[in-house]
Design goal:
Length: about 200
């Protein structure tokens, strides 16, 4: 079989350009189906490294964090987390209602800010020594202190809530699958794992 000499000959031969990842995967599938070694000349890794290499080459999907597989936008994921984090916080103003209803309303005005800042903080917690709690406490204390002194500032806390929704959504979109996720990504129950999808 002769090689095409010109670009026209190449196009006429039916050759199609493919990404390197697809070509490596196709070569791995062909080698495994023909019972040939995946890598020539490598000794001593037949039961350890080479099966893992075969799995990595056959996998067609990138490892994503679990939350990214949900059919929601980043903003919806942040708001859902904020609701889950904010529901237990509702007990504080409810308990304060028996003591002072006005103060309970002031504390309740902090709930949306506390929940959304916690939801945003969770998305960047892996990069900080204090985790999500440190960032959330700084935000809530920095805003809660002035509100305790002058309660009309509680409207500012409510107005600042969308900023933390935006911050959390931005962090969620910028989240990268870590090496830990790659190593522990399971293909069980994933019908597209070995397909070309």
């Amino acid at each position: 079989m002769s090689r095409p000499a010109t670009l026209g000959d190449l196009r006429a031969s039916g050759w199609e350009s493919r990404p390197v990842k697809e070509e490596i995967r196709a070569n791995a599938v062909r080698a495994l189906s023909e019972n040939r070694p995946l890598v020539e000349g490598v000794l001593g890794y037949d039961d350890t490294v080479l099966p893992q290499l075969a799995n990595a080459l056959l996998a067609t999907r990138q490892p994503w964090t679990w939350a990214r597989s949900l059919p929601w936008s980043a903003r919806h994921r942040v708001l859902a987390d904020a609701c889950l984090l904010g529901i237990p916080l509702c007990a504080v103003p409810l308990a304060l209602c028996a003591v002072n209803a006005t103060q309970a309303l002031v504390v309740a005005s902090l709930l949306p800010l506390a929940a959304t800042s916690a939801s945003a903080a969770i998305r960047g917690a892996g990069n900080r020594q204090t985790g999500a709690a440190g960032e959330c406490m700084v935000v809530v204390l920095a805003v809660g202190g002035p509100i305790a002194i002058w309660p009309p500032l509680s409207f500012g806390a409510i107005a600042a809530t969308p900023v933390f929704v935006w911050l959390g959504a931005r962090r969620d979109r910028n989240r990268v699958a870590t090496r830990w996720v790659e190593l522990h990504h399971t293909a069980a129950g994933d019908p597209g794992w070995l397909s070309g999808a």
